[in-house]
């Protein structure tokens, strides 16, 4: 079985569950560390000719992270493409199982059971808080409706204020984000790399939680520890 992954979180899931199956991945596929496969470009601009030259049995992709014209070009060249859709945690777990089965994994990996257990055994939040969740600046963009990251936060007791916006990732002026007066501003380190010196200064007087983008937005082995890691970061913002 020869698999090319165009999604960083799926790359990690396949690499740790079926060593040797992956022959190609994007330039952004940084987990697991030291992954030795051919790099095929970015998630938004994969090099189709490089993918085709690898003669994969399967390319795994995602409807949000990858562009349909790129996937159509691969299909036109006779490459089988599996496209995932992930909008919440239960769907992520189902899609991960589907991807692994398609990659020839016959035994359910332990990390997937641990992830399911971690999310199914979450205690009810002691209180609910409101948040805005920027994912980019210049221009400012935030989580909107129907997103995996939004569902992750909601399960941890954090309700982001643009969850009913008509767009999934709306552009919102900074003054409007401040005026929304959230209980906390959640700043992940991807896709924009917010840091202690780049992000919190834009929200004076508001608690800011710097969180791992891998734990907030990736669906893969990181799901098993995501509830703990994210909860710790959220608590730290209120100290």
Automatic annotation (TrEMBL):
SUPFAM superfamilies: Helical backbone' metal receptor. Gene3D superfamilies: Nitrogenase molybdenum iron protein domain. Residues 2-239 form the Fe/B12 periplasmic-binding domain. The lineage of its organism: Bacteria, Bacillati, Actinomycetota, Actinomycetes, Kitasatosporales. Keywords: Signal. InterPro entries: ABC_Transporter_SBP, ABC_transptr_periplasmic_BD, Vit_B12_bind_prot. Belongs to the bacterial solute-binding protein 8 family. The keyword Transport does not apply. This is Cobalamin-binding protein. It comes from Streptomyces cyaneochromogenes.
């Amino acid at each position: 079985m020869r698999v090319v992954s165009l999604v960083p979180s799926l790359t990690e899931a396949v690499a740790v569950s079926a060593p040797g199956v992956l022959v190609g991945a994007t330039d952004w596929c940084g987990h697991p560390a030291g992954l030795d496969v051919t790099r095929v470009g970015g998630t938004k601009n994969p090099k189709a000719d490089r993918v085709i030259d690898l003669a994969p049995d399967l390319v795994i992709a995602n409807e949000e992270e990858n562009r349909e014209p790129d996937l159509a070009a691969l299909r036109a060249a006779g490459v089988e493409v599996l496209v995932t859709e992930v909008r919440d945690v239960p769907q992520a777990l189902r899609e991960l199982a589907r991807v692994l089965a398609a990659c020839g994994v016959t035994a359910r990996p332990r990390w997937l059971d641990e992830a399911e257990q971690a999310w199914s055994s979450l205690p009810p939040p002691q209180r609910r808080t409101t948040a805005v969740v920027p994912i980019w600046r210049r221009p400012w963009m935030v989580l909107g409706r129907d997103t995996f990251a939004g569902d992750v936060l909601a399960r941890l007791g954090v309700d982001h204020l643009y969850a009913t916006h008509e767009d999934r990732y709306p552009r919102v002026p900074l003054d409007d984000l401040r005026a929304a007066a959230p209980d906390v501003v959640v700043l992940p380190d991807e896709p924009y790399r917010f840091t202690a010196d780049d992000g919190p200064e834009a929200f004076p007087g508001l608690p800011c939680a710097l969180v791992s983008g891998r734990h907030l937005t990736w669906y893969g082995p990181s799901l098993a520890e995501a509830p703990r890691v994210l909860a710790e970061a959220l608590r730290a913002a209120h100290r």
